[in-house]
Recover the amino acids of this structure.
DNA sequence: GTTTGTGCAAATCATTTGCACCGCG
DNA sequence: CGCGGTGCAAATGATTTGCACAAAC
């Protein structure tokens, strides 16, 4: 239920945009129209998206942004730590912005594709413990649970 | 530490081969040389492998097996529930056979690629709980922890 | 003998890259 | 202005597929 709350209010992106601009300046990269448009869109989204869906969302602009540029900007933002890349078992990547979002794991419906975010501090703790016990200094993790959801709205399985 | 033990003894593959053959028969698929060679190799491996590395391992045979065939056989074995597919964040897939191996999660070294398996029943339990609480009936999960390992043998990071 | 499997090469698909032109600083 | 950025089209790399020949049943 945490995610619906985050998505309901209209998010002000100025703080995130500022962070991104600062990163660009610090790295000697230029502030371009495309970078601003893409970042703005990304920060305004509070869902998981793909390079494809992002380009689609930007189509309403008079000037469409090329896939090459989209990929290049995504890569900068991941590098900047503003964006997280996910592999949900598909052959393309999902992204979600990080600022303003706590770390969380995912439950993915194998029937309708719905993604629910959740966080369990005990699981986090146990993961750190497991890494430590195996002599690893942890840099990150990825936990995805797959299942069939109960959403009568989206889930084909519960919809028939 | 559980994994080293599994890997140390020479595994008899006859039981697994039997299961695979039965599956093929049941599905009206043919028992071919390639399918037997690939399955035999897979069941004898107790590590994670890729389509590429598997083909490499089969090179010592007089007749090399084509990539197309390898992929086709991998797909059958996944379908049969004998093989599990993994996305470790790379742009190619990893596989590991399932029979004779308990379910487990992975810790992957981002420096040297070493993969350690682990299992934590409490994490398993908490995952089921999280899925249940979000209205999902769980079908599977994937937990990967990334970090830097302490192996002086393989890890470049600890090797310099 | 049929039907299914295999190898090869060509096709896909997401992502990346080379290059000529464009626009920020 | 000058150099990094963008778009385009071509390149890449893993995986898939069409097709003619080969092997299983």
């Amino acid at each position: 239920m945490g995610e619906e709350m985050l998505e309901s209010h209209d998010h002000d992106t100025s703080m995130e945009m500022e962070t991104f601009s600062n990163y660009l300046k610090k790295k000697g990269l230029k502030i371009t129209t495309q970078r601003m448009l893409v970042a703005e869109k990304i920060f305004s989204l509070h869902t998981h998206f793909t390079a494809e869906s992002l380009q689609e969302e930007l189509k309403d602009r008079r000037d469409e942004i090329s896939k090459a540029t989209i990929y290049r900007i995504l890569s900068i933002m991941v590098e900047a730590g503003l964006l997280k890349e996910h592999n949900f078992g598909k052959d393309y990547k999902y992204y979600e912005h990080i600022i303003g979002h706590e770390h969380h794991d995912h439950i993915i419906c194998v029937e309708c594709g719905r993604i629910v975010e959740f966080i369990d501090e005990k699981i986090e703790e146990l993961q750190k413990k497991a890494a430590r016990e195996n002599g690893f200094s942890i840099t990150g993790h990825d936990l995805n649970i797959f299942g069939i959801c109960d959403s009568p709205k989206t889930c084909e399985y519960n919809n028939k």
Q: What stands out?
A: The first strand of chain A starts at residue 83 and ends at 86. Chain A touches chain B at residues 85, 87, 89, 105, 107, 109-110, 116, 118, 120, 122-123, 126-127, 129-131, 133-151 (CB under 8 Å).
